[in-house]
Amino acid sequence: SAGLQQLAHFCAARLRERVQAPERDPQDWSIDLAKSCGCELCAWLTAFLTDSNRRRMEWPLAQPKRRHVHSLIDQAELPVTHVTRRQGRPFVLVLTKTDELFERERRVRDDAHRGLAQLHRDWGVDLSR
């Protein structure tokens, strides 16, 4: 029981961090790409993703390069659409950051509030800390 109480307090501390973290500015479109292979394409993609003002990028790329970028976005489950515009050569990869970026952060904060409330109900964790 003491070990579970410790675990409850540890979890509450992590949830409090999420709740107390500053909310994302509604104009901040930056996205963190946690993992990449470090190639030139990854560097370009990271520059686009971390740009807080830029929502869309049109990128002429041959098919193997588009595939690499597609796979990075899909594997990381980024809130970015990737559509290939099939005009000219090479085709153009159109990347667009979506509102899901803000929705995910809202859900994380809401889930943290619910988790804290449950820890308070079930384990008597103090919510004021």
Report on the architecture of this protein:
There is one protein chain. This protein is an alpha+beta fold and 129 residues long. The protein is 52% helix and 13% strand. It contains four helices and three strands, in the order H-H-E-H-E-E-H. The protein has helices spanning 2-20, 40-50, 63-75, 100-123, and strands spanning 56-60, 80-85, 92-97. The protein has a three-stranded antiparallel beta sheet with strand order 1-3-2, covered by helices on one side. Helix 1 packs antiparallel against helix 4 (100-123). The longest helix is centred in the C-terminal third of the chain and has 24 residues, at 100-123. 12% of the residues are buried. The model has no long low-confidence stretch (mean pLDDT 95).
